[in-house]
Amino acid sequence: MSDRVGQVTRRDMIRRAGGLAGAYALGGLLAACGGGTAATGGASAATSGKAASGTAGAAAASSAPRVGGSIIIGTLGEASSINPIYTTESEGTWRTMMMFDPVLARNPDNLSLVPNLATKWDIRPDGQQYTFTLRSDVKWQDGQPFTARDVEFTVLNILMPRYTGPYRTQFEIIQGADAVSSDAPGACAGIKVLGPQTIQFNLSAPNAPFLNNFYILRPLPTHLLQGKDPRTATAFNNHPIGTGAFAFKSWTVGGDFVAVANPNYWGGRPYLDRFTHRVIPDASTLVLALETREIDGSLYPDPTQYGNLRAKSFLNVYQQPYGSDIEGWGFSFDVPALRIRAVRQAIVHALDMREFLKIAYPNGLGAVANGPMNPNAW
258: which residues sit within 8 A by CB, 6+ positions away? Predict the structure, then answer.
């Protein structure tokens, strides 16, 4: 089958997510060499036996994880940034998740928010004040202590008019947010550092999802970025320093991104010694790299190769539950015609989603969705 539908590649088609114009729900795919481990997330993934000695939480392994080893993970795209308050694509986001810890984490069993960099939080009954107590044993990867000033600094940078990342709207509810200046950044009336490990946020109105923002927020180091624009701080963005389990080692754009275990990580040294995130921009070449064991894993093997991957005796192929990904089309209101509801409705009715599904996923891994929400979420 051709990889093109008119002038649109299959990869282009399935990446145009949004789902409001039409969508199909997919069952994710993961392939792993025997004895390897399963990575999580994404529409598809694969790992190879070379990682068996070093990856924690192995889905295929029956013994306890062992310390040491490395893993090479293949990806189709390159990160545009590895700064946690600016990255938007999956590659950069995943890398920053490894190097920078969030203030809060999630319980994987029920997705409730749990302590992480913060040990506890208090919410005033009126829902307009949040006070966080931070861990006192966390250090940046250069040995400097992590404090409430780092959290304040990060949120202030998100609120500055010069900020071009994706998180401003989540924090604009803070009192005084509109007065934060890029030219002369200073204190925000609604943010109070009460001590080295205590920070308080006062809101202009109750905001139910505000606490969730601290699952997204991965603080930046004040001592390295004070007086600088984090977006253009080249030295930091080319060699970031975080609080996470892995520390930056090297990055060849369009090639390998390498990070190594942080021996002083507050949560305990990770099992792996290092991971390599390797860019393989062609889907067919990525599958070949799995088949030849050049890479240990990937979230992106071409789903049309599901049968071929299953046929390899050294590969374990896992499929995520139906509905784990929703792919589809969204409408850009930058196009005047698409601001007209009747035009959008006409396009939706003209699209044959079943035909698109057959082209992109001819092996029965997906189904036409009824909307943009995961059907397993309700």
Answer: 249, 250, 251, 274, 275, 276, 277
pTM exceeding the 0.85 threshold for the entire prediction = no
Any idea which residue has 């044993």 for tokens? 137
pLDDT grade for 323, boundaries at 50, 70 and 90: low
Q: Which two tokens stand for residue 279?
A: 């860019």
Q: Residue 150's closest CA among 139, 163, 137?
A: 139
What is the Cα Rg of the chain in Å?
22
The closest alpha carbon to 89, from 3, 165, 24, 10, belongs to: 165
Residue recorded with tokens 């599904």: 357
At a CB cut-off of 8 Å and minimum separation 6, what does 265 contact? Answer: 244, 245
Residue type, 95: R
Residue 169 Cα distances to 184, 210, 264, 361, angstroms: 21, 11, 34, 36
Question: What whole-number distance in Å separates Cα of residue 354 and Cα of residue 375?
Answer: 18
Query: What is the secondary structure of 228-292 as a DSSP string?
Result: S-TTT-HHHHHS---SSSEEEEEE-TTSEEEEEE-TT-TT---S-SEEEEEE---HHHHHHHHHT
Residue whose C-alpha is closest to residue 294's, from 308, 310, 276, 307:
276
How remote is the C-alpha of 114 from its chain's centroid?
18
Residue 106 in tokens: 């999630």
Instruction: Provide the CA 287 distance to its chain's centre, in angstroms.
Output: 23
- Tell me: pLDDT of 26 over 60: no
Strand partners, 133: 120, 198
Cα–Cα distance, 206 to 312 (Å, whole number) = 55
Beta partners for 118?
134
**What is the 3-state secondary structure of 227-244?**
CCCCCCCHHHHHCCCCCC
Residue-wise pLDDT for 51-68, tens only, equals 332 222 333 444 688 899
Give the whole-angstrom CA distance, residue 30 versus residue 308: 13
Confidence tier at 40 by pLDDT (50, 70, 90): very low
What is the distance between the alpha carbons of residues 210 and 215, in angstroms, rounded to a whole number? Answer: 10
Residue 157's SS3 state is helix
Q: Cα–Cα distance between 259 and 71 in angstroms, integer? A: 11
User: 331-369, pLDDT tens digit by residue?
Assistant: 888 899 999 999 999 998 898 888 888 887 777 777 888
3-state secondary structure of 152: helix
